[in-house]
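Let us practice reading a record.
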Amino acid sequence: MPSPHSAIGTSVFYPERSRGATGSAIVGFGMYIPNNRITVEEIAKHWGRDPKEIISGLGVKEKSVAGPDEDSFTLAFEAGRQAIDTAGIRSSEISAIFTGSESHPYAVKPTSGMLAAALDLHPFSFCADLEFACKAGTAGLQIVDAFVRSGQITYGMAVGTDKAQAKPGDALEYTAAAGAAAIVVGSDTSEHAFCRIEHTISFTTDTPDFWRTADAPYPAHAGRFTGEPGYFLHVRQALTGILSVTKTKLSAIDHVVLHMPNAKFPGKIAREFRISKEQMQAGFIVPHIGNTYSACSLLGLVHVLKEAKKGQKILLVSYGSGAGADAFLLSMLRDAPALPPDTRPLHYLSYGEYRRNTDKSAVS
């Protein structure tokens, strides 16, 4: 079949559609985390704070930092390309892409459209950018899941990507990080399927715990209010809800991924629900990369998929300020394909280097 892009301007091959409703499954996954890091200790020392107190309070030791030539589009491109490679399909077979981010490069110009072109997806694609704080990536996964189940598409991609902003000196500066994750979804009967999406639900309220107005360079937040009634209420409700509607016990779950704004919040939920360290271990990545916002939960999922074995069950609960939570129950049909090793050395920045990187690439 010729590339669909080769005929643009004359006639374009329309993508094949699935026929009838079907189940859905993850068929490909990818991630990209910049190799720049800054330690919490370095930030704390700049502001004359006690590093041990900050690290103890957040449970985060360091975070990823985008380079001056990286933005949420370039991060997403790298993750998307890896996801297509692991799926083992032609990029032109993908006919939907939804990109969640709080830091889209343009206020008016779709990141999803740019990705569809750069990744050589089918030009007859459903494309849209999403914003729902840190759960925009999982919102995209829900949309792609629904498109596949309805038979509208054969393959679709969901992306969570962010180059998180934080006002200098604000508490968010210790954790706001950069990264991207991409998930390719297809039918659960596809030869490429390895992780079935069993069920998903959402719980949403109007809770103003975190926000950024259109003309503000940095987000604002309501301090401790972001815990209760923000994160904890919504994650509890979504977690309880998904277990209830699927009639699943937590003891039957092998891997749990909770949104990680820091290490303390998911740790508290884990203690409340008696989720073990073994269940949390594979996807608990926040201590060494920070909170990658829209990519955070999906990056946790990617790390779990790398480790999960055939027959194991995965519970994913994301959270987005404003506020809402998405929950997914997934089951491994077989071991996932291996991701290529990341051989890049980590580069640790001074606070001055960090600010120069951040200032050059900040969203305005």
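A brief commentary: The two ends are 43 Å apart (CA to CA).
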